[in-house]
Design a protein that fits this description.
By secondary structure, the chain is of the alpha/beta class. It has 18 helices and 16 strands. It is elongated, with a radius of gyration of 25 Å. The protein starts with 6 loop residues before the first strand and ends in a 14-residue tail after the last strand.
Length: 505
């Protein structure tokens, strides 16, 4: 026998007296024959008798009931239910049963594969939407996504609002202890906290059917949702900074790699490879002259945030050495400056321009020939977005970084944002198409393969962010209106491993 149930299922409800008993019995009738030990937690606000109807089933199944007469919000109800849960896996399912409990069969295998959060989706592969929402609701959902994704940064999640989400118990306690939104945007907040905290999130397609009933007021409800999105984006720093409890499972992608890594692509033709190598070198030559303001931010940021009296620098993806023009190095620092570049034609340009530094052609996604903790300064300026095996680079940079005084300085584009997409269209895309007489799409889809949230997700088990600066709007810390982000990271004393304890450095 389990000391605790295998599954805790929270059912948020507001005036659902007509459906609550039917939903609870359907859940019981599915779980009991399969030998699953469970508890049901009905978190119900309202005055229509929902709580009383649920409580009447206590003799039939393990059900707890909580809630108040006044409407306090779905987010609050789910939060209180999750924090009262005792199961190994904690999830929530809407009382209107738009997603049936048998869809949990698509969820549980992913926990066995190391995921911490598994969410149902109407947009992921395998989804089966039996009955769609009204047309104006669907338009509203698309408009919501257009605002939410650049504002909060959840580009990788196709459906944040499906009411069918499951968590490992420790992860659920961590996230919902920090979660603050009482309304419908609590899903967005929880997913944002999960990704920023380094948890592995899996989205699975589920069978979903609209019942035509909605409790969201079209104008006032969506206005509140918009305000809550801004609260998540600009008010989450304190919550996100709370240390993760040591008992909570954390994934280390380098040790237990997520299924999407390494990202794979069809091989380039010989001509495409030639064009790619040529344009990358050309772009590094053009950027300082045509777009000097951006170039200055890219290279000045790591200089301003360098550790005092640093000795050994590693610059990965060093291009043609343009960053070195911004450095003021002593002879000792210059001799201990290592520039790593993947393309030999660009490495040759660095050797010609800066013969006193150490330039190597190599791949930062593989183990490098340096001892552990050798560098007290590592730079990655517009590099991490290019790496199909980003977790390996995160692990290798952590190995090489001095744990006591080292700094990892990165600059990444706001890939996917409105501002960045528009700026690229009139800059890099125009230059590429004019120079190569080829469409830009195949090139950029192979080059910019990672978005900011993915990069921060993979770095989180190894590094903590100590400083962040957006450009050009430094006082508006949102990706949608900015072009690039500079970040200064410190290595953790010990990396967080797959069970939430500290792994050996």
């Amino acid at each position: 026998m389990h000391a605790c149930p295998q599954l805790s299922l929270v059912i948020p409800a507001y005036n659902e007296v007509a459906t609550i008993q039917r939903t609870l019995r359907a859940i019981r009738d599915y779980l009991v024959p399969r030998g699953v030990t469970f508890e049901l937690i009905v978190s119900a606000d309202g005055t229509d008798g929902t709580r009383e109807a649920a409580a009447a089933l206590v003799s039939e199944m393990p059900v707890k009931v909580m809630g108040e007469p006044q409407r306090r919000g779905k987010g609050r109800g789910v939060r209180e239910g999750v924090l009262a849960a005792t199961g190994d896996i904690v999830g929530f399912l809407d009382a209107d049963y738009k997603v049936a409990i048998d869809e949990i069969e698509k969820v549980t295998p992913w926990f066995d594969q190391g995921f911490d959060v598994v969410i149902g989706s109407r947009g992921a592969a395998g989804a089966d939407v039996r009955k769609h929402q009204a047309w104006y609701r669907r338009i509203g959902s698309k408009g919501f996504a257009l605002v939410m994704r650049p504002l909060v940064g959840l580009y990788g999640i196709k459906d944040t609002q499906c009411g069918f989400k499951f968590f490992r118990a420790g992860v659920a306690r961590d996230l919902f202890t920090r979660q603050r939104i009482d309304g419908y945007m609590f899903d967005v907040e929880v997913l944002s906290l999960a990704l920023r905290g380094g948890y592995k999130v899996k989205e699975v397609g589920v069978r979903w059917q609209d019942d035509g009933d909605t409790r969201l007021k079209l104008v006032s409800g969506n206005w509140q949702n918009l305000k809550d999105l801004f609260r998540i984006r600009f008010g989450r720093r304190a919550a996100a900074a709370v240390p993760v409890p040591r008992a909570c499972p954390i994934s280390v992608e380098g040790a237990t790699m997520s299924s999407k890594w390494p990202k794979t692509f069809p091989p380039l033709t010989a001509e495409q490879q030639r064009i790619s190598d040529d344009f990358m070198k050309h772009w590094h030559e053009v950027l300082p002259n045509k777009f000097g303001v951006i170039d200055r931010f890219n290279h000045a940021y790591p200089v301003r945030h360098a550790p005092a009296a640093f000795r050994h620098t590693l610059e990965i993806g060093a291009g043609i050495g343009e960053h070195l023009k911004y450095e003021t190095l002593t002879p000792e620092q210059e001799a201990a400056y290592h520039a790593l570049e993947l393309r030999e034609n660009m490495s040759a340009a660095i050797r010609a321009r800066f013969p006193r530094i150490q330039t190597v052609t190599g791949d930062c996604q593989a183990r490098l020939p340096h001892p552990d903790g050798h560098f007290d300064r590592i730079l990655a300026i517009h590099v991490l977005e290019h790496l199909p095996n980003l977790p390996e680079t995160a692990r290798e940079m952590y190995r090489l970084c001095d744990k006591a005084r080292g700094v990892f300085s990165i600059v990444i584009p706001c890939e996917g944002s409105l501002a960045y997409t528009m700026a690229r269209r009139i800059s890099a895309q125009r230059i590429f198409e004019k120079r190569s007489k080829q469409p830009y799409k195949w090139f950029i889809e192979r080059e910019h393969v990672n978005r900011p949230h993915e990069i921060l997700h993979e770095l989180a088990p190894y590094f903590t962010v100590t400083h962040r600066r957006f450009f050009p709007f430094r006082f508006v810390p949102a990706t949608w209106c900015n072009l690039v982000i500079g970040l200064t990271l410190k290595p953790r004393e010990r990396a967080l491993n797959a069970v939430g304890t500290r792994a050996a450095a």
